[in-house]
Write a structure and sequence with these properties.
The complex is a heterodimer of chains A (432) and B (400). With 432 residues, chain A is an all-alpha fold. Helices cover 79% and strands 0% of the residues of chain A. Chain A has two domains: 81 residues, no CATH class; 336 residues, Na+/H+ antiporter like fold, CATH 1.20.1530.20. Chain B is mainly alpha-helical and 400 residues long. Chain B has one domain: Up-down Bundle (Na+/H+ antiporter like fold). The longest helix of chain B has 30 residues. The chains are: A mainly alpha (432), B mainly alpha (400).
């Protein structure tokens, strides 16, 4: 581990030197590629250091991003981190594709109903508790205080739907890292994925209600068609992608990792452009392939493990660099209260509603549901854009929560998997 | 959206460029040649770019500058790895003299007449005209050895001769890079002293990054980790150069050469890891370079025939001079100059780098001439190279 620390130290010193030279140069060039290279290298070696001290590699990626990013040491300029937005979609797509290859029909038949019921219970309880807490905070939250009762109720519901969301990205990355296999892992992965679908639907409805409460009118048909398009359109596009992948793998079958990276990039960008969910597109593509041809599903899994290391390290380091630590100071107390309330709600609902056949689910599952990352960021940004009156302040509050969850969540997820006894080792450096 | 557009364009072109119909020389020889060399991507870039169809706008192209920097940095690192200073020092002096001869003659044949032409027709001040012509000469001095490599691999040329031509074309890269450095010293800053500082900064940055990559890869054994570190290192050197507004190409060359010098056993693995990304990166770079072409640049079209013709003459004469110098050390084909007509991608890299760092009308003219010239030279080269190939019987005898 000392070698990794020395290498990380040298990298940070190099970045400090570049930042110093930039001050002398006066006026800067484009910083996107610097951010990409620096965060990738720092992430890789910080991951090794984190692993050396018993933390998930992912925590190392995130922490080093925070340290060298624009909101701490400032070695990586803000524009550089912002320019890496494209990578987020790619990483989410790749991760979702791998997750999809795990979704076999047998698994869905076996635990699908249980997962859906538990997910509904956890999301419902967490939503209810967070909704009550946010509404109770109305007098002290500056953006909520001047609103009328219906407006405050609608906005509280909107924020609660976002606060409920989980992070399939982090969960799947940690599962990959630890090579965890077993019924607990399957249950956890299925739950965070289905939870995301719940959140997507609930968010669309809450956004419609909020718009109506501010006098924008309630377009029920538009609302429903939007949700239907996002869900079913994503599955249809995912099926088309699956066909394209199978054709490529059977006819061309060269440079599969490179092809998958290109296809996932196109899926992420095209999906966002078509108002589809990139996560769902890739997830359904992976699931369809795995169920049509299990061998090809395994090949995709293996190919993404090869291509995934740089993408995941860069994605999570960039996510860390984008965390605004200052928000913790400004809206810290409210955010920390919500973090605590959410954690307690998830913990209690898991203890109460998880299937009794497997005691591990009641004891450890909640730890795997704490993380929040890409989806939550995306929804917070959407609130900011859609409701410019109060949205930016809501975004700050949610980002403060995500900051806490990103730092704590991966550690808890790993601990849940370790305690479930399904971790198979952490020897493969290809994983996140 | 712009990224998706570029990605889809490149993906479609990649499919097109790997089409068997297109690559069949018996059907469309010129197009097949351009597709194989990758310069077809330059043409498509020029067509889709803001200079012609405008599918990609100027803002799109500006937004993709980090990708261009990455392409230049990657090209530089690969060049630097090939130009290992220890190996270059081991080469016999006649070989170095031969490389300098063919590159130098082509440089002089292009730079001197075009300096006069630029001075008389554009009204530019003397230093600017001389600088622009020198850059044209530097681009003209570069040759690509891909015809020779293909020739000996297909058995149409003796292996020793093919490798000797490839060696000479590799060494001329140094001439082009030195002239680029000189042009940047004179053009990229307010004063030559500052220009020297900026070029030195690029080289220093490259050397530090090269040493750092060598250290980072020292104990890595896993190929995936090694590839990731190499990609990160190349992005770091390219990105830092772009951020500090110095040459990513020169920084990359310094990085690659340092890595070759101090990298030890890891160098071969690093080269192999980088080699997997060489072709895609090159094609993307050439496509994006094509987007910078202003096809309606009349001045460039006027200069183009002179540039191509003078370069051809310079290479033919320079080739015969080089053959005389290196006859004791290398087995070279009789009409060496005809094997040196292909220009390859480095010439485009040189001028796109200059255009990015010293934007302006003159840089744009130079870029347009060299980019369009590379396409014409490639088409000319496929015919010229036939003069170099032995009749089938001779080649067979040579092989046995």
């Amino acid at each position: 581990m000392s070698g990794a620390i020395i290498r990380l130290g040298l990298l940070v010193a190099m970045l400090a030197g570049i930042a110093q030279v930039q001050v002398w140069r006066q006026g800067e060039g484009t910083s996107v590629m610097l951010a990409a290279g620096a965060l990738l290298l720092c992430g890789l070696f910080a991951g090794k250091v984190a692993k050396g001290v018993g933390l998930p590699r992912l925590t190392g990626y995130l922490l080093v991003g925070v340290v060298v990013g624009p909101y701490a040491l400032g070695f990586i300029p803000f524009d550089g981190v912002k320019g890496l937005e494209l990578l987020k979609g790619l990483a989410v797509s790749l991760i979702a594709l791998v997750a999809g290859t795990e979704l076999h029909l047998g698994l869905i038949r076996r635990v699908g109903t249980q997962v859906a019921l538990l997910c509904a219970a956890v999301c419902g309880v967490t939503f209810g508790v967070c909704f009550a807490a946010i509404f109770a905070l109305k007098p002290v939250l500056p953006f909520l205080a001047p609103m009328t009762l219906p407006q405050a109720l609608a906005v509280s519901a909107l924020i609660s739907t976002v606060v409920v969301s989980f992070s399939p990205t982090v969960t799947i990355a940690i599962v990959q890292e630890t090579s965890a296999r077993g019924s607990f892992t399957e249950f956890l992965m299925a739950l965070v994925i289905i939870g995301d679908l719940f959140v997507m639907v609930a968010f669309a409805l809450a956004a419609g209600l909020t718009r109506a409460s501010f006098g924008g009118g309630l377009d029920v048909q538009g609302l429903l068609s939007g949700v239907v398009w996002e869900l079913f359109g994503s599955v249809v596009v995912g099926a088309l992608l699956a066909v394209a992948m199978l054709v490529y793998m059977r006819r061309v079958n060269r440079e599969l990792p490179l092809f998958l990276v290109g296809l996932c990039f196109a899926a992420a960008e095209g999906g966002a452009w078509l108002h589809l969910s990139p996560l769902l597109v890739s997830l359904s593509a992976g699931a369809i392939i795995a169920n049509l041809d299990e061998r090809e599903g395994q090949r995709i899994h293996h190919a993404i493990q090869l291509a995934g290391l740089p993408v995941f390290a860069l994605f999570f380091a960039a996510a860390g660099a984008g965390l605004k630590l200052a928000t913790l100071v400004t809206v810290g107390p409210a955010a920390l209260l919500l973090v605590a309330v959410r954690a307690v709600a998830i913990h209690q609902s898991c203890r109460r509603f998880a299937p009794p056949e497997d005691p591990r689910l009641r004891r450890f599952l909640w730890m795997g549901l704490i993380s929040q990352a890409g989806v939550t960021f995306g929804l917070a940004a959407l609130i900011s854009r859609t409701f410019p009156g109060f949205g930016p302040q809501v975004e700050v509050l949610i980002v403060a929560m995500i900051t806490t969850h990103e730092l704590v969540g991966p550690v808890l997820t790993r601990r849940a998997l370790e305690r479930s006894g399904e971790v198979r080792g952490d020897e493969r450096p290809q994983t996140a | 959206m712009q990224a998706l557009l570029v990605f889809l364009a490149i993906a479609a072109l990649s499919v097109l460029a790997s089409s068997r119909t297109l690559l069949d020389p018996s059907r469309l020889p010129g197009v097949a040649q351009l597709a194989a060399s990758g310069l077809l991507f330059l043409i498509f870039g020029a067509i889709l770019g803001p200079g012609l169809a405008g599918v990609l706008t100027l803002e799109d192209v500006q937004g993709l500058r980090p990708v261009v920097a990455l392409g230049l940095g990657t090209a530089g690192v690969i060049l630097g790895l090939n130009l290992d200073p220890r190996l270059v020092r081991l080469l016999p002096r006649p070989v170095i003299s031969a490389a300098l001869a063919h590159a130098g003659v082509a440089f002089l044949f292009v730079a001197v007449p075009l300096a006069v032409a630029l001075l008389l027709t554009t009204g530019l001040p003397l230093p600017a005209a001389v600088g622009g012509a020198a850059l044209l000469g530097a681009a003209a001095s570069l040759s690509s050895g891909h015809f020779a490599v293909l020739g000996y691999r297909s058995g149409r040329m003796e292996r020793a001769r093919g490798l000797a031509v490839a060696l000479l074309t590799m060494l001329d890269d140094g001439v082009g890079l030195m002239v680029l450095a000189l042009a940047l010293v004179l053009g990229a800053a307010a004063s030559p002293a500052e220009g020297v500082g900026l070029v030195s900064l690029a080289l220093l940055l490259g050397m530090v990054c090269g040493a750092l990559i060598a250290f980072l890869t020292y104990s890595l054994k896993d190929p995936a980790e090694l590839t990731a570190v190499m990609l990160g290192g190349v992005a770091l050197v390219s990105g830092a150069a772009a951020y500090l507004r110095v040459s990513a190409l020169l920084a990359g060359v310094a990085c690659g050469a340092t890595l070759a010098l101090v990298g030890g056993r890891a160098v071969e693995q690093v080269s192999r890891a980088l080699g997997r990304f060489e072709r895609p990166t090159y094609l993307i770079l050439v496509f994006l370079a094509g987007c910078y072409v202003q096809a309606r640049d009349v001045d460039a079209w006027v200069l183009l025939p002179g540039y191509v013709a003078l370069r051809f003459l310079g290479k033919v004469l320079g080739g015969s001079l080089a053959r005389r110098f290196a006859s004791s050390a290398l087995e070279l084909p009789a009409r060496l100059g005809y094997a040196l007509i292909a220009q390859g991608g480095l010439a485009v890299c040189l001028v796109v780098q200059y255009l990015l760092l010293v934007p302006g009308a003159l840089s744009q003219h130079i870029f347009d001439v060299v980019a369009l010239g590379a396409v014409f030279n490639e088409m000319l080269a496929s015919r010229a190279f036939r003069q170099v190939l032995e009749p089938p019987r001779a080649a067979t005898e040579g092989a046995t």
